[in-house]
């Protein structure tokens, strides 16, 4: 079968690295990573997180990039073409559809969260965050969310900026945008780390982030690290697969994947080094949870020299990170409409943007006018988060590794990855036997169905991987054709 010719390509390898890193480096790194690190004891959690990036993040990302480049299209089209080359069942395209839908629905509530960062950049500048306690800043946060015009206005700004960049195309829009946004984010982050060094709490912050306490290694922490490693790299959301379809054939997928994973991890660690010293210098609690950057940090900045200026820089950095992720979440949908149905990128962006604005408005209203509408105990915002993070992304990850590891002929992935024999064998083992078990654990834990501590019963994990390896090898001649649909 003749391979699909690429309709769009990154101008350089750095175009993909910056775009994929921008997709991965979002609020998950700068907002969520510091507070879950605080909740799970610092250095021990960081070590588990790094191991999980290697065990799940890198192998699954390589799957998505390879399938995207092989199929040259949106998640639905790319998977459809690769499966067709494999003479497989076209129903596998549903995996691409689920990933694309998950990314779009995540964006529908993500623009609201990103709007907080944009709003706080201005609030930090105009003095709206002047308060004497974390509780008072909690009141400011609640007042912001209870005003639908204010909350909706900032959400709309994020949505319009995202659509404007994506409508301009892969090279002129996305690649040009990330070429200045990602270096700008790195510069702002390094400035903030430098500021943290002078805060008086850097030694405490560094020790908290990197000291190793074995008592903090628990099953709950491991599952949190597994989940965060999976979600922080934008896996199973259509973003990486779509970006992978724009990579030239002569670029190394393995090398590029490791560079993205390293850059993503470095940003997360630097964010911790920027945040925790300031928190410790002001005697605050590093386990403050989601309120760490929207309540604790603004108060800490007020109590430090030049705090307002550095507070503005901090929230500007968070805003850039949020925008680079938002761009990737809608690119799969725009690419699908553009390539499959021949709609121009501008019209595709406008059409998908209209749907985005309606759904995101409902998510925004969950904090004010629709706050009383909570079917089964969740408002609309929470339901979007629950369906995507608890169901669609873990299931998408499992189906992706099953497709790459079992359903596709080995020569397809071997040709695309172009790894040395030992490297390919290691990747294949991880994708077939380790990743399915670990992702399934994340899935069951997220649903509250995992009834034991994995580290106290580590032999369950080892046994599951061993059993899957044995059964998989014994039944592979029958399992693989069945999964492939042949």
From TrEMBL:
GO CC annotation: membrane
Location(s) in or outside the cell: Membrane
Domain of life: Bacteria
InterPro entries: Na/ntran_symport, SNS_sf, YocR/YhdH-like
Main location: membrane
Keyword field: Membrane, Transmembrane, Transmembrane helix, Transport
Annotated membrane topology: Multi-pass membrane protein
This protein's name: Sodium-dependent transporter
Top-level taxonomy: Bacteria, Pseudomonadati, Pseudomonadota, Gammaproteobacteria, Pseudomonadales
């Amino acid at each position: 079968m003749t391979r699909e010719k690429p309709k769009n390509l990154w101008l350089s390898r750095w175009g993909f690295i910056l775009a994929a890193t921008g997709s991965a480096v979002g609020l998950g790194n700068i907002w969520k990573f510091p507070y879950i690190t605080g909740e799970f004891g610092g250095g021990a959690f960081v070590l588990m997180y790094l191991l999980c990036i290697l065990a799940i993040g890198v192998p699954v990302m390589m799957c998505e990039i390879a399938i995207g480049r092989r199929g040259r299209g949106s998640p639905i089209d790319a998977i459809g073409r690769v499966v067709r080359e494999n003479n497989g069942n076209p129903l596998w395209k549903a995996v691409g559809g689920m990933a694309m839908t998950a990314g779009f629905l995540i964006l529908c509530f993500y623009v609201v969260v990103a709007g907080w960062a944009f709003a706080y950049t201005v609030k930090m500048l105009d003095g709206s965050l002047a308060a004497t306690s974390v509780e008072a800043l909690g009141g400011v946060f609640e007042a912001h969310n209870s005003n639908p015009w204010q909350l909706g206005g900032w959400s709309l700004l994020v949505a319009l900026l995202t659509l404007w960049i994506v409508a301009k195309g892969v090279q002129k829009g996305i690649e040009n945008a990330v070429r200045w946004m990602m270096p700008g984010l790195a510069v702002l982050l390094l400035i903030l780390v430098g500021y943290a060094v002078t805060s008086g709490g850097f030694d405490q912050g560094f020790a908290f982030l990197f000291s190793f306490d074995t008592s903090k290694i628990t099953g709950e922490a491991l599952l949190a690290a597994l989940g965060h490693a999976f979600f922080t790299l934008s896996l199973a959301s259509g973003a990486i697969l779509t970006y992978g379809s724009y990579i030239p054939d002569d670029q190394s997928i393995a090398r590029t994947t490791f560079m993205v994973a390293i850059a993503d991890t470095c940003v997360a660690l630097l964010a911790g080094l920027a945040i925790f010293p300031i928190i410790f210098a002001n005697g605050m609690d590093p386990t403050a949870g989601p309120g760490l950057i929207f309540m604790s940090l603004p108060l800490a900045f007020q109590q430090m020299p030049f705090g307002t200026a550095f507070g503005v820089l901090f929230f500007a950095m968070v805003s850039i990170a949020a925008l680079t992720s938002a761009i990737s979440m809608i690119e799969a949908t725009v690419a699908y409409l553009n390539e499959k149905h021949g709609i121009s990128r501008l019209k595709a962006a406008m059409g998908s943007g209209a749907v985005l604005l309606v759904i995101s408005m409902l998510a925004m209203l969950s904090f004010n006018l629709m706050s009383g509408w909570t079917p089964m105990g969740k408002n609309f915002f929470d339901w979007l988060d629950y369906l995507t993070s608890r169901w669609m992304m873990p299931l998408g990850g499992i189906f992706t590794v099953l497709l790459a590891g079992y359903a596709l002929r080995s020569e397809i992935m071997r040709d695309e990855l172009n790894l040395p024999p030992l490297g390919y064998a290691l990747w294949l083992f991880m994708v077939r036997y380790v990743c399915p078990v670990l992702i399934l654990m994340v899935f069951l834990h997220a649903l509250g169905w995992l009834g034991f501590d994995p580290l106290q019963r580590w032999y369950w994990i080892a046994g599951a991987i061993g059993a899957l390896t044995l059964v998989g090898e014994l039944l592979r001649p029958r399992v693989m054709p069945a999964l492939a649909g042949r």
